[in-house]
Design a protein that fits this description.
This protein is an alpha+beta fold and 126 residues long. It has two domains: 5-68, Arc Repressor Mutant, subunit A (Orthogonal Bundle); 74-124, Dna Ligase, domain 1 (2-Layer Sandwich). The chain is 31% helix and 21% strand. It has four helices and six strands, in the order αβααβββββα. The strands form two sheets. It has a three-stranded antiparallel beta sheet with strand order 1-3-2. The chain has a three-stranded mixed beta sheet with strand order 5-4-6, with no helix packed on it. Strand 2 and strand 3 (63-68) form a beta hairpin.
Length: 126
């Protein structure tokens, strides 16, 4: 993959974000630098995803949120927690969910997504 300003920008934004971002959020941060338009962000994310550098973490409001990949395999994915009170989604980097076992012959898991919903500590008062 060629090194381009758009690819570098998207990777830099995701690296510094500490959480998954939507295409719009990534684009807004890059446009603040006067560098990349919406179509470029969309294309760059597709290329980075195909290369295994970025993955789709979860959907909120019909929009995918992207984050840096964690080394590829299905065992490397971390769960996400979405608060139904404030709408914030958290990466649970310290938590791990085991890969589903006992699938019938022929099924091959490439990636497993785990998304929990409930109330965050701030909204639950805890």
């Amino acid at each position: 993959m060629r090194r381009t300003r758009g690819r570098e920008g998207v990777l830099r934004v995701l690296l510094g974000a500490g959480k998954a971002l939507s295409e719009g959020e990534i684009g807004a941060r890059l446009r603040g630098e006067g560098r990349v338009d919406k179509v470029t962000v969309y294309r760059v994310l597709g290329r980075l995803e195909a290369a295994g550098l970025v993955h789709r973490a979860y959907v909120r409001g019909r929009r995918w949120h992207f984050e840096l990949a964690e080394g590829g395999g299905s065992g490397g994915c971390h769960p996400h927690f979405s608060c139904v009170g404030c709408g914030q989604t958290y990466c649970l980097l310290e938590a791990r969910a085991g890969v589903v076992e006992g699938l019938a012959a022929g099924f091959v898991v490439r990636r497993q997504r785990v998304r929990l919903e409930g109330y965050c500590p701030r909204c639950s008062g805890g």
